[in-house]
């Protein structure tokens, strides 16, 4: 779970890491009031969960209320890298003498925590690493070790903080680590960690976190009730918000084939198969969503899943891919049939069963005699059929597809026959394209 | 501990008395796993009855308060953990403290800081963790007459013994691949899990199969997120004498979206399926476009091995 800068800033401030005076504002009026409280000059910064906002024009230095209004009029409606700006942070401008970069993150490969730092901060660390790889230091904190002030000081020295900054830097590192651990973060990044103050007055100089990025481990949400305030429903896809309320693992994509399966890997694999089929068939058909029902075979889960998937107006066909491990396909079949009762949609649903009781599951679907259902023997075939159904604006086109043998080893459930049966021949097709 | 457990390995189940624990303990017993106890401090002293085998004979499995008590009483060497995420860290720590040599963690949703701590502690003591968020570990009968064991939720009856080793980040794709290659058979299937930090990495699982004389070819199923596939490719290139075939799921996954598994996320352009495929292929590991195609590549490799 990624946080906005203004939220990350709160978590840093809670650890007594110095940050500029700043206030979050949702509207231009709020921003003007905030700027007047903080005092000019100040910086108006777009709140958006993506980098490079400065280059995109999402940051403005302002000197009076009119300039705040002008900046807000430009920034608030902006979308940066596909992310709609969600308010601005109005922060006191600082006299920056030097910029460092410091981050702590989970290291998946070494299975511990990475401290990445450079004395040349200010831009994206990837770019610094490219231009000056020797200046980026990578150090590790083990999950078992006690990271104390001595360790932090040694780390600050080896990072290469300038002599006068080492003690302060060690404090910042220590507080960042506490922030990381206390909040179950997977990333705490301060960029820039700036040396600010009057160049002629040594006593005025100090390290200050001018910008921050924090990501939290969603698996730890059960022990962080306070995270509910970080929920970002307004910025989340409405289908994903609804799916989460129903307890489903759903990700909204931009295609036409709804995909439902059991197991995250199998569903990802199904998405790839649908995309592959779309490419192969020369259509632009792509998966409309990721939806993992896990071991859930119940009609409730299936009904909720179909509801979500079919509420997406882009969806032209649905691909249900089940490998029965412990779950029996027979149970899943009965879940599908119960879910279909009372479902008003006429969108065709292609089902592929394999594994535990797959045969019984298929037979159950056949006997149900529902014109919306089709069964395929393999994942590839099911992906191809669902992709071709999604690309067909009318029944006629589906007939055309099947005559070309796209679904040669598939069969419409109604009148399913091991040997043959093309979609075109099946009476089931009559109701497919028509309104219901 | 060597991951090639067998029917003689004494196993305890932490969380045995819960719904999932009961169901899967029954299945594991049925598969011939030597379950010697369960752990639940609130039910210590109880005996839980399971009906096993065609004749439905009853097996009474004792419940202990702690892993240490269970180990002292039974000599348990391995544990399977089914407890909910919020109790998983203390369950893992308890098993580590008791000196259980192999800990298979099925639980999904464990905070990664908890896993990181337990994995590092286990590694420092020479204890193996498999998972979390994994289907577990299945070993099959061996040429020396030792039977296999099932530690986790991998269904029995899909495969029998054969020369393949299977490593996977994903549950159902494991079963899918087992089904595709059921006629050839496996030595073992290791579900390493879909979390960002796991106790046994793809590389460590490859090493297990490299060291196993009966395994001739390895199938590895990866997915988006992290660098485990790249790390495995680099390791295999210099250390692996046996052919490896891979499949990667998630080419269609968009940037910044977690695809079900906690670890399955492309971020900052890193962890893409394409990047993994390229790294594997550069290391001489063919990558199938679909699970079926990967299975076909395995057959080709195996014919090559036999021809040698």
Automatic annotation (TrEMBL), chain A:
Annotated ATP-grasp domain residues: 9-216
Amino-acid positions noted as binding ATP in the UniProt annotation, renumbered to this chain: 45, 94, 99
Entry's cofactor comment: Binds 1 Mg(2+) ion per subunit.
One Gene Ontology term, aspect cellular component: succinate-CoA ligase complex
Pfam families: ATP-grasp_2, Ligase_CoA
Cofactor(s) this protein requires: Mg(2+)
GO molecular function annotations of the record: ATP binding; magnesium ion binding; succinate-CoA ligase (ADP-forming) activity; succinate-CoA ligase (GDP-forming) activity
Reactions the enzyme catalyzes: succinate + ATP + CoA = succinyl-CoA + ADP + phosphate; GTP + succinate + CoA = succinyl-CoA + GDP + phosphate
UniProt keyword Metal-binding present: yes
A biological process from GO: tricarboxylic acid cycle
PANTHER family named among the record's database cross-references: SUCCINATE--COA LIGASE [GDP-FORMING] SUBUNIT BETA, MITOCHONDRIAL, SUCCINYL-COA SYNTHETASE BETA CHAIN
HAMAP family: Succ_CoA_beta
Similarity comment: Belongs to the succinate/malate CoA ligase beta subunit family.
Protein name: Succinate--CoA ligase [ADP-forming] subunit beta
Organism: Bifidobacterium bombi DSM 19703
Source species taxonomy: Bacteria, Bacillati, Actinomycetota, Actinomycetes, Bifidobacteriales
UniProtKB/TrEMBL annotation, chain B:
Binding site for substrate: 175
Alphabetized UniProt keyword annotations: Ligase, Nucleotide-binding, Tricarboxylic acid cycle
Entry GO terms, CC: cytosol; succinate-CoA ligase complex (ADP-forming)
InterPro entries (UniProt xref): Cit_synth/succinyl-CoA_lig_AS, Citrt_syn/SCS-alpha_CS, CoA-bd, CoA_lig_alpha, NAD(P)-bd_dom_sf, SUCC_ACL_C, Succinyl-CoA_synth-like
Top EC class for this record: ligase
Active site: 261 (tele-phosphohistidine intermediate)
Binding residues for CoA: 17-20, 43, 106-108
Catalysed reaction equations from the record: GTP + succinate + CoA = succinyl-CoA + GDP + phosphate; succinate + ATP + CoA = succinyl-CoA + ADP + phosphate
PANTHER family assigned to the protein according to its UniProt record, in alphabetical order: SUCCINATE--COA LIGASE [ADP_GDP-FORMING] SUBUNIT ALPHA, MITOCHONDRIAL, SUCCINYL-COA LIGASE SUBUNIT ALPHA
Family per similarity comment: Belongs to the succinate/malate CoA ligase alpha subunit family.
Assembly: Heterotetramer of two alpha and two beta subunits.
Entry protein name: Succinate--CoA ligase [ADP-forming] subunit alpha
Organism expressing this protein natively: Bifidobacterium bombi DSM 19703
